[in-house]
Design a protein that fits this description.
Structural class of chain A: alpha/beta
CATH topology of the largest domain in chain A: Rossmann fold
Strand order of the largest sheet of chain B: 1-4
Helix content of chain B: over 70%
Number of domains of chain A: 2
Oligomer: heterodimer
Largest sheet of chain A: 8 strands, mixed
CATH class of the largest domain in chain A: Alpha Beta
CATH architecture of the largest domain in chain A: 3-Layer(aba) Sandwich
Strand content of chain A: 5-15%
Largest interface: A-B, 54 and 43 residues
Distance between the termini of chain A: 66 Å
CATH superfamily of the largest domain in chain A: Response regulator
Strand content of chain B: under 5%
Number of helices of chain A: 15
Distance between the termini of chain B: 14 Å
Number of strands of chain B: 4
Structural class of chain B: mainly alpha
C-alpha cells in the first residue's frame, strides 16, 4: 500500500515539474556538474556562477529591482541528462542557458532556437555560432575555440621568432565534439605557417593517456597543445612531467587552465602555459563584495574556498555578462521582468567598455565587449598565462591579443553557411 | 478472485495458442495500447516526451533486441552500444543522402544495416561461448565507436564529428528536429515499439524462438536433435541487431537529435541495456519493458523527488541516486533472481489462487 502511495505521490511530483511559477523573478538555470570525472572543473564554475547572482540579489536587490532565481540542475557533463535538465527547467521561465559542455550545447542549439531562448556558450560550444546571421539565439562571446587556437599558434610563432616553418605541433584532445573543434583551424594554420600537425585523441574520461604520451616522448614535438577537460587535464600534465616534456612548450586551451589541473602535479607543473580569456587571481574589488555579501553571510554555493581560481572567475564572469545583458534588455524594452526573447535582444545589444568593467569592480578583467547582430563571437581576444608552482598562482605573460581573423572568419563563414544549408535557415539581414 | 481463468473456455486451437491466454491479460494489454495511442498524445508535453516516454520506448526497443540474443539465445553480448551507433549512423547517412526517403523506411533500413553488421560480428559465436563471446562482442563495441570517430564520411565531414538529425516529416508532420511536436515523436516511436514487441513475442513462441531456446539451454543437445547452430545463432544476432539498430536510429533521430559516438554509444550503454534485461528478466518481452523503465525512470524519479520536491543540493542527490539505484538492484535481485518479470509472474500465480491458497 505504502509503495503505491509513494509511486502516486512521486508521479504527482513529476507532473508538477514544468508547471512553472508566476512570481516575478529572473530565472537562470545552472546546468552544472558537481559529480563525475568533470566535477573538479565543474564545481568551481558553478560556484562562481551562483555566487555572483547571489551577490546581485543581496547587494542590489536583484537586477533592476527584480530578484534572480538560479535553478541548479546536475548534468554530470552528460548530454542525455543535459536534455532532461533543459526540458525540466525551460517551463520555469528560463532566460538563458549556459550548459558548460560543448556536447550539450550542440544538443541545445536547435532546441533553444525553436523555443526562443538564448544560449550563451562562453568560449565553448559550436564556434561558427559566432555568426549571428545564422545562429540567432546562440552567443559565444568573448571568444571562440578557433580564436584560442589561432592565438596559441601566434604565441608559439612569437616564441620562435616569427617563423613556425618546419616545426612540429601535437594536439592532445578530448575525443569529443569539444576536443575536435580546433582541428580544422590548426590544420588551416599549418598550411599557412608550414608547421607539421599531429593529432592524438584521448577518450572519455581521459585517465588513460600512456600511449599518447609515449608517442610524444618518441617524436618530441616542438610544442604540445591540449584541448582537455576534467580529470584529463591533470593526467596529461602529470604525464608530460613524467616524460620531462618542457612545460613552457605545453600550452592548454582556456579550459585546461585552472589551478586544480596543475596543483596535483606539484613542482613539476611549473611553467605550464595556457590561454586566458580573462584576468587571474582575486585582486579585484568585486571580491570584497562577494566576501562581504555572499561568503561571510553564509550564502555561498560552495565552501567559499574557490574565490579567485580561474574557473570560479570564469563562472562569475559568465554570470556578470548575463546580468549586464539583462540590464541591456531592461533598457531596450522598458520592462524590469523581462522574458527570454527580450533577454536575447539584450545579449545582442550588449556593450561593456573598460569604464563599465571598473564600475562592476572588475577593472581590466576582460576585453571590451561589443556584441552585434552579425557578430555573436565577441572580440576574440586572449592572453597567455603561465603557472608558477612555487607561488601557486597564474600570471599573464602576454597582453590580450587578437586571433588571425583572416583564417578564423573564413572558417566561421564556411561552417555556418554549411549549417544554414543543412537546416534550411535563411541568414538574417543584419543591415 | 479478480484475476482468474475460470470461465475462460478455449474451444479451438487458435484460442488455445493465443499470445495472452487469460482474458484479463488480453484486456489489460488492449487497454494499455489504446491508452498509449489515444489518450497519452493529448496529455504529453515536452518534458514527458523528452525525459520520460520517448527514452523509455527507445530503451525498451534496445532491451527487447538484447533479450532476443542474450535472454532467448543465450549469447552474451556487450556490443549493444556499438550496434546502436550503427543504427544511428545508418539513419543519419540515409536521411542526409536521400532527403525524400520516408522516415519509417529510414528507420527500418537502419535496422537492416545493423542486422548485417550484427551477422558479421556474430560469426565468432559459432566458435566461442560464454565470457569469451562477451569479450569478442566487446571488441565490436570498441571497433564500431572507433570507426565512427575515425572515418569522416560517416559524419559528413563535419568539423566536430557530431551528427545532427535533420528535420524530416511523416504525413507532413515533423518527427525529427527541434520543431517536432511531442505527440508526433512519441507516436512515431510507439508504433515501432508496439509492432516489433508483438513480432518479438510471436517469434519467441514459434519455431525460431524454440530453436534459440534450445541452443541456449544446451547447444550440443540442440545440435543432436537437429537444430542448426549456424543458422540459429546468426538469426538471433541478425534479429537482435535489427531491433537494436532501430532503437539506435530512434535514439538519434527522435530522442537526442545530435550525438557524438564516444559519449552517446559508449560501453556504459552496452552495460545499461544488459542491466535492463537482467533486472527486467532474461527471456521475457515484458521484462524488457519493465527493466528499461526501471533503469531509466528510477534516477529521473529520485531526482524529481529529492531536488524538485525536497530541494536538496543537486550533487548530494546525484550521489544518493547511485546508492539508491544500486541498493534497489541488489534488493530486487535478492528477492527475485530471475528479474522483475518473474516477480510479476509469481504475483499472477498468487492472484489466481487468492483468496484460497493451499
Amino acid at each position: 500500500m505504502n509503495i503505491q502511495k509513494t509511486i502516486a505521490a512521486s508521479f504527482a511530483l513529476v507532473l508538477s515539474i514544468g508547471a512553472g511559477s508566476a512570481a516575478a523573478d529572473l530565472v537562470f538555470p545552472s546546468l552544472d556538474y558537481r559529480t563525475g570525472p568533470y566535477a573538479p572543473n565543474g564545481i568551481h564554475f558553478a560556484d562562481g556562477y551562483a555566487d555572483y547572482f547571489t551577490l546581485v540579489n543581496e547587494r542590489d536587490g536583484g537586477i533592476g529591482g527584480v530578484p534572480v532565481r538560479v535553478l541548479p540542475c546536475e548534468t554530470g557533463y552528460n548530454t542525455e541528462k543535459g536534455v532532461e535538465c533543459y526540458e525540466s527547467t525551460k517551463g520555469e521561465g528560463a532566460l538563458l542557458y549556459q550548459p558548460l559542455s560543448t556536447g550539450i550545447t550542440y544538443q541545445l542549439i536547435p532546441k533553444v532556437t525553436a523555443d526562443n531562448i538564448p544560449l550563451h556558450s562562453m568560449g565553448y560550444g559550436r564556434t561558427s555560432a559566432a555568426n549571428g546571421r545564422v545562429f540567432s539565439h546562440i552567443f559565444n562571446y568573448p571568444g571562440t575555440y578557433w580564436d584560442a587556437a589561432s592565438i596559441i599558434v601566434k604565441h608559439m610563432s612569437d616564441q620562435e621568432g616569427g617563423d613556425l616553418n618546419g616545426k612540429s605541433i601535437t594536439l592532445v584532445y578530448h575525443n569529443s565534439a569539444y576536443g575536435k573543434e580546433p582541428i580544422r583551424t590548426l590544420e588551416e594554420l599549418s598550411r599557412k605557417h608550414g608547421y607539421k600537425l599531429t593529432l592524438l585523441a584521448v577518450d572519455h574520461p581521459g585517465q588513460e593517456q600512456k600511449s599518447q604520451w609515449l608517442q610524444i616522448r618518441r617524436e618530441r614535438p616542438d610544442y604540445v597543445v591540449m584541448w582537455g577537460w576534467g580529470v584529463m587535464n591533470q593526467v596529461a600534465i602529470q604525464e608530460a612531467a613524467n616524460i620531462r616534456y618542457p612545460m613552457d612548450r605545453f600550452i592548454g586551451v582556456w579550459w585546461s587552465a585552472s589551478e586544480n589541473d596543475v596543483i596535483p602535479v606539484g613542482e613539476a607543473a611549473n611553467g605550464y602555459k595556457a590561454i586566458a580569456m580573462h584576468g587571474v587571481g582575486d585582486g579585484y574589488p568585486v571580491y570584497d563584495d562577494i566576501r562581504k555579501y555572499v561568503i561571510d553571510a553564509g550564502k555561498a554555493a560552495g565552501d567559499g574556498s574557490n574565490l579567485g581560481t580561474v574557473l570560479y572567475n570564469r563562472g562569475m564572469y559568465a554570470a556578470m555578462l548575463a546580468v549586464e545583458a539583462v540590464r541591456a534588455a531592461q533598457e531596450i524594452h522598458g520592462v524590469a521582468d523581462i522574458n527570454a526573447s527580450q533577454m536575447r535582444d539584450g545579449m545582442e545589444a550588449l556593450k561593456i567598455d573598460q569604464a563599465r568593467m571598473a564600475e562592476l569592480g572588475l577593472p581590466n578583467f576582460g576585453p571590451e565587449i561589443n556584441v552585434t547582430c552579425a557578430n555573436h563571437g565577441g572580440p576574440g581576444l586572449g592572453a597567455i598565462q603561465q603557472w608558477d608552482a612555487s607561488a601557486k598562482s597564474w600570471s599573464l605573460i602576454t597582453d590580450f591579443t587578437g586571433a588571425d581573423r583572416e583564417v578564423v572568419d573564413a572558417l566561421i563563414e564556411e561552417d555556418s553557411s554549411a549549417y544554414a544549408a543543412e537546416n534550411n535557415i535563411t541568414p538574417r539581414d543584419c543591415g | 478472485m479478480f484475476y482468474r481463468e475460470s470461465g475462460d473456455f478455449k474451444t479451438s486451437y487458435i484460442q488455445d495458442q493465443q499470445i495472452f491466454p487469460i482474458g484479463l491479460d488480453r484486456w489489460f494489454v488492449a487497454v494499455v495500447c489504446v491508452f498509449a495511442v489515444l489518450v497519452v498524445p493529448f496529455l504529453i508535453n515536452d518534458y514527458w516526451e523528452k525525459s520520460v516516454l520517448v527514452p523509455v520506448l527507445v530503451w525498451s526497443m534496445a532491451a527487447i533486441g538484447l533479450n532476443i540474443l542474450t535472454g532467448y539465445c543465450g549469447q552474451v553480448s556487450l556490443g549493444t552500444g556499438g550496434f546502436m551507433a550503427v543504427g544511428a549512423y545508418a539513419s543519419y547517412k540515409l536521411t542526409t543522402m536521400f532527403p525524400e526517403l520516408n522516415m519509417f523506411l529510414v528507420v527500418l533500413l537502419s535496422g537492416g544495416v545493423t542486422a548485417l553488421v550484427g551477422i558479421v560480428f556474430g560469426l565468432p559465436s559459432l566458435r566461442i561461448k560464454g565470457f569469451y563471446l562477451a569479450v569478442a562482442t566487446l571488441a565490436s563495441q570498441f571497433f564500431l565507436v572507433w570507426l565512427f570517430n575515425k572515418v569522416p564520411w560517416f559524419y559528413n565531414y563535419s568539423a566536430s564529428g557530431q551528427i545532427s538529425a535533420p528535420e524530416r516529416f511523416v504525413f507532413g508532420i515533423a518527427v525529427s528536429g527541434p520543431n517536432a511536436p511531442p505527440w508526433a515523436t512519441y507516436l512515431f516511436c510507439l508504433v515501432f515499439v508496439v509492432v516489433f514487441a508483438f513480432i518479438a513475442k510471436n517469434l519467441t513462441r514459434g519455431r525460431i524462438g524454440r530453436s534459440w531456446m534450445a541452443i541456449r539451454d544446451m547447444d550440443i543437445a540442440a545440435e543432436i536433435i537437429g537444430v542448426p547452430p549456424l543458422r540459429t545463432k546468426l538469426s538471433a544476432f541478425a534479429i537482435s541487431s535489427f531491433y537494436i539498430g532501430i532503437s539506435g536510429a530512434l535514439f538519434f533521430l527522435v530522442y537526442l537529435g545530435a550525438v557524438e559516438p564516444t559519449e552517446a554509444f559508449g560501453i556504459d550503454k552496452s552495460f545499461l541495456v544488459l542491466f535492463m534485461i537482467i533486472i527486467g528478466g532474461l527471456g521475457s518481452i515484458l521484462g524488457s519493458f519493465i527493466g528499461a523503465a526501471f533503469m531509466f525512470l528510477m534516477p529521473v524519479l529520485f531526482k524529481n523527488i529529492m531536488v524538485g520536491g525536497l530541494g536538496w543540493p543537486t550533487d548530494l542527490v546525484a550521489h544518493l541516486i547511485f546508492i539508491l539505484i544500486g541498493g534497489l538492484i541488489m534488493f530486487f535481485l535478492i528477492v527475485e533472481p530471475h528479474g522483475l518479470a518473474q516477480l510479476w509472474r509469481v504475483t499472477k500465480e498468487k492472484l489466481r489462487l487468492w483468496p484460497f491458497p493451499h
